[in-house]
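Case study 2.
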Amino acid sequence: MSDPGHGAPAPRIELIDAVRGLSILLMVAYHAGYDLVAAGLLPYGLVFNPLLSVLQPLFAGVFILLAGVSARFSRDNRRRGLQVLGCALLVSLAAGFVNVPIPFGILHCLGVCMVLCGSPAAWVDRIPRGWQPVLFSALFAAGYLWFPFYAEGAARFPYLYMFGVLYRGFRAYDYFPLIPWFFLYLLGVWLGAYVRERRFPAWFYTWRVPVLPAIGRRTLLIYLLHQPVIYVAVQWAAGLAGE
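Prediction:
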C-alpha cells in the first residue's frame, strides 16, 4: 500500500494482507472443487450445497471490501483499475477458448470500481462520513436482494449485465455485477479512512501471522494463474480416471 499524496510509502498492514490471502486461497479451493465436480471427479453436493452457497459470496465479499479499504492507500486508483481491467480482459479471452464465459467477473468488477472511485475516493468524501456506512450498506443490501434480474429486451442493450440486468440465456462462470458489489467496495473505502487514520486498536497494525500476508500481497498473480493450473490438472486427472 502506498500513501496517496506523500512521497514515502505507508507501512503495509499485515492483518489486511493476511485476510486477503485467506480469501484468495478459499476462492482457489472453491474453483478447484467446481472444476473437479464439473469433470465428474467429485460428487455434485460437495460444492453445490446450502453452506457453500452462503460462504462463496461471503469470501468474495470480504475480498471486495478489502479492495475498497486499499483504495485509501493507493496513489492512483484509476491506473490500478485499468491494469486490473487489462488482466480481466486476458481472463475473459483465455476462458472463452475453453467455452467458460466470464463476461464480468470479480476482476472486471474490481477494475471498474477502482476507476470509478478515483484518486483516492475524492468524490466519496463529499458524502458526510457519518452517512456513508448507512447509505452504502442500504444500497448493497437492496442490490443484493433485487439484482441481478432478467429483463425483456436486455439483449438489445450491450453491457447492461455489468449492472446486473440480464437477458435470457446469459451465461457466466464468474459474475460480479456493479450492483450490488460496487456499494460493498464503497463501504470498504469508508472503512479504509479509519484504517488509514489509525483509529483501530494497536494490535490491528502490529498483528503478525506467517505465510498468509505474503499470499495476500500476490492475489492478482494468483488469480491470473490459478484457473489455468487447475484446468490443466483437472483435465489430466480426468484423463487418468478414464483410462
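The first helix runs from residue 14 to 38.
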